[in-house]
Model the fold of this input.
Amino acid sequence: GWSGDMAIDNIILEDASVPDGPEFKNLTVNNSSGMTLSSDVEIDGTLTLTSGNITTGSNTLTIASGGSISRAGGKGCECVVGNLAKEHSSTTAVTYEVGDGTRYRPLVIAPASASSETYTVKYNNTQYTTTTCSDDGPGGTLDHIASSYYDISRANSVNANISIEWYSTDQVDDVSSIRLCHFNSGDNKWDALTTT
Done:
């Protein structure tokens, strides 16, 4: 459920709580303090982030197929801090509006097929606990791991192309040497993947 101010189809609720697992057609967040989920929430229409972030904690904010997120941008992060899931049924690239509450760090996923799939993305502005790199991934040897990472999962088995933006604050000194990596829980190491 939600706590705080929210606009639902032009109705303003202050300090409202809603039942577990609510679904909204459209939702506007216009509160610099943001919102925190106390359960999973689904948006079937448009989520408008005018001011403030949505913090999910261990819950998930899901944007249903055909739904969207609109950000004001430029004022702050105006993003989802935590688990953002989006349902896909096409190969159209979709932006995941995630960040850490201060930094907006979007990720774009373009499914390889039009089969139904739900991807969940979370941005973590901290270094992963294990930084050991292996040299057995298809992308070659790794020198070190970045100070932030994304958790990306899928509900089914549809592969996808993933695009990540880099910013001057990410302290990347040689863009050509960047490699996308996958954490291999089998050997507890990072494997570099092939990238384009």
Remarks:
- The longest strand covers residues 54-63.
- Residues 56 and 188 are 27 Å apart (CA to CA).
